[in-house]
Design goal:
The chain is α/β, with parallel strands linked by helices and about 325 residues long. It folds into two domains: about 1-80 and about 300-330, no CATH class; about 80-295, Rossmann fold (3-Layer(aba) Sandwich), CATH 3.40.50. The protein is about 40% helix and about 25% strand. The chain has eleven helices and 17 strands. It has helices at about 15-25, 35-40, 45-50, 55-70, 110-125, 150-160, 170-185, 210-215, 255-265, 275-290, 310-325, and strands at about 1-5, 30, 70-80, 80-85, 85-95, 105, 110, 130-135, 140-150, 190-195, 220-225, 230-240, 245-250, 270, 290-295, 300-305, 330. A six-stranded mixed sheet has the order 9-8-5-10-11-14, with helices on both faces. The protein has a three-stranded antiparallel sheet with strand order 1-3-16. Strands 2-17 form a two-stranded antiparallel sheet. A hairpin with a 3-residue loop joins strand 8 and strand 9.
């Protein structure tokens, strides 16, 4: 895209016709050194023809100088656009039961946390303009990542999550409380928590419904996702003597509690029994939670005046030298 940074400089072009008119009104010189051959009847020499081109050289120099003063530029300008932006806290369960391998991907069994990582990574990649933070919980709950738009960092932190890092139990109320605190730090038109767990709250200082009530008071919506199939699920155990073996754990998901948390805050409860279902849940949340914000525009331009200024200065120097040496006018 081409533009002039100082277009008002082009007003100086109006002075060129006035200058030409003034110079023509001046009395011509009695004799110019370059015209001696013509006066002697020898015909116009190349030097004389060059002398007659001096006025054009003079006006061309002025044109180049004025054009350089207008600062022509070439570049790209992106105007402000509407995009989607909300505050999202991902509350991820890292308790021991998340090791259950009841998800499948391309014929390979994967545990619940691996499935969550895969789907959440795609969810993050689809968002634009959102602030996303992360809270992890087990026996304790803590902030893994504050709200940020650095999606590469979010993805990197997500990949490093490990089962049992926050303890083996499940403190859902504390996870909601920490998430609410993170959202209260930064204002937004829309604040949501996406809570992922495969169990029921069995530890922690804050009751889940009390935490949901606080979230409701602050206008925070909670989407709860129950992860895992119904019935028994295989859990790997690394035995130092017999190696890896599997035991089966019974499903202990507190669906009623997760439904009540979502209903209290105006959110929704989902059950993810397989990878496709988990992907569909995140696609649904992605569609539901949109909030228009204005993204800042920017412009990048390259200056072009330096292509005009050096030739103009060279022409001006040549004109001054010729005018006061070879083509000196004698009044």
């Amino acid at each position: 895209m081409f533009r002039l940074a100082t277009p008002y400089a082009l007003l100086l072009l109006a002075l060129i016709p006035l200058l030409a008119w003034y110079r023509r009104r001046r009395r011509p010189p009695a004799l110019a050194v370059g015209e001696t051959r013509l006066a002697a009847g020898l015909g116009a020499s190349p030097a004389l023809r060059l002398h007659r081109m001096l006025p054009g050289l003079y006006y061309l120099t002025l044109l180049l100088l004025i054009a350089a003063l207008a600062r022509p530029q070439w570049g790209t300008e992106r105007l402000p656009t509407d995009t989607e932006g909300i505050n999202i806290v991902l509350a991820v369960d890292l308790s021991g039961s998340m090791a259950a391998e009841d998800f499948n991907y391309q014929g390979r069994r994967m545990n619940r946390l691996e499935a969550i990582k895969m789907v959440v990574r795609d969810f993050i990649a689809r968002r634009a303009g959102d602030r996303i933070g992360m809270v992890v919980f087990g026996s304790q709950a803590y902030t893994q990542l504050p709200l940020t738009r650095d999606y590469q960092t979010i993805a990197a932190i997500l990949e490093r999550l490990t089962i049992g890092a926050a303890g083996r139990n499940t403190a859902i109320g504390d996870a909601i409380g920490i998430s609410v605190k993170r959202l209260a730090d930064i204002e937004s038109r829309s604040n949501i928590i996406i809570l992922l767990t495969d169990g029921r709250s069995n530890t922690g200082e804050l009751e889940p419904m009390a935490a949901a009530g606080i979230a409701h008071q602050k206008g925070i919506k909670i989407y709860t996702i129950g992860v895992g199939g119904k019935g028994r699920a295989p859990v790997p155990i690394d035995d130092p003597i017999f190696g890896r073996r599997y035991v089966y754990q019974q499903d202990d998901l507190d669906e009623e509690g997760l439904q009540a948390i979502a209903a209290e805050t105006g959110g929704r409860y989902f059950r993810a029994e397989d990878l496709a279902g988990l992907q569909q849940i995140y696609a649904t949340i992605d569609r539901l939670e949109k909030n228009k914000v204005e993204a800042q525009g920017f412009a990048e331009y390259k200056e072009l005046y330096f292509y005009l200024l050096p030739p103009a200065l060279l022409l001006l120097a040549a004109w001054i030298v010729l005018k006061h040496t070879r083509f000196l006018e004698i009044p």
